């Protein structure tokens, strides 16, 4: 993502520069929302709609503008599809086994899917895998050190956010 934004902003095209600036704005919004949601999830085990819904709306708006500026309708459609797919899979998990994942995580997955899907399916897959691997490693460490047992609730939102951030940075 960093190289992509750099290429856009140094291309010499006004439209590409503006698209790069919008993506930088989207990244800044990602950071602010990610930090706030992570702290809330770690302390309260919830991801509030008052942050998630505006974040989803602003992200969608930014990606629509970027897609128009770059003529990248497939990227926008892929982002929407990735968000809906990731959210749908999480919703299915929630419906099958409610204690395993919260509705906040379902909604967060939609927002993160928008970001990653815009860049491509490889980025989506990387974000999902990194999120689960990071959560798994931390869970194992907590179990080994007896700081948690199999009934301990572990906030998943921060892992979704960190895994997605790493995937976006690596793209």
Automatic annotation (TrEMBL):
Domain Prepilin type IV endopeptidase peptidase as annotated: residue spans: 30-140
Membrane-crossing residue ranges in chain numbering: 17-40, 52-70, 76-96, 108-141, 153-170
Keywords: Membrane, Transmembrane, Transmembrane helix
Keyword Membrane belongs to the record: yes
Domain of life per record: Bacteria
Keyword flag Protease: no
Pfam families: Peptidase_A24
Membership in a protein family: Belongs to the peptidase A24 family.
Family annotation (PANTHER family): PREPILIN LEADER PEPTIDASE_N-METHYLTRANSFERASE-RELATED (PTHR30487:SF0), TYPE 4 PREPILIN-LIKE PROTEINS LEADER PEPTIDE-PROCESSING ENZYME (PTHR30487)
Protein name, entry field: Prepilin type IV endopeptidase peptidase domain-containing protein
Organism: Nesterenkonia aethiopica
